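We modelled the chain as a single entity of 119 amino acids. Its sequence is:
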Amino acid sequence: MSDKLKIKKPVKRYYRKRVELFRLIDKIKLWPSRTGTLHGIRTIEKIGDQARITTHCNKTFMVNNSRNSRASRWLRNKWFHDICPACRIPDWKLAKYSSTQFKRHHGSLLLDDAGENSR
């Protein structure tokens, strides 16, 4: 055997394209800011149809649950310019995010633990 470590390719994950924003960020734990910076999410507090998100760089803001918002589209299409240095997102999480694919008729619906589609 060789002494070099074999680097595994990240497993492709498939999610539905039109899932709600809260389910998507609960799973991915990343947030694209309006300036194009990708932040890591520390906590998500759901308050009805809104949520208070706190990033690892201690920024807090309120977001609405939407399927076609700017953040939803940017997460699905993987649009970002740089990564927040204060959030320190690990390389494995970025590799996992880059291997994730969003398909319209194929993939997980990111249902609740009970398996119900709550709206």
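As a brief sanity check on the tokenised model: Residues 14 and 107 are 5 Å apart (CA to CA). Residues 91-99 form the longest helix (9 residues).
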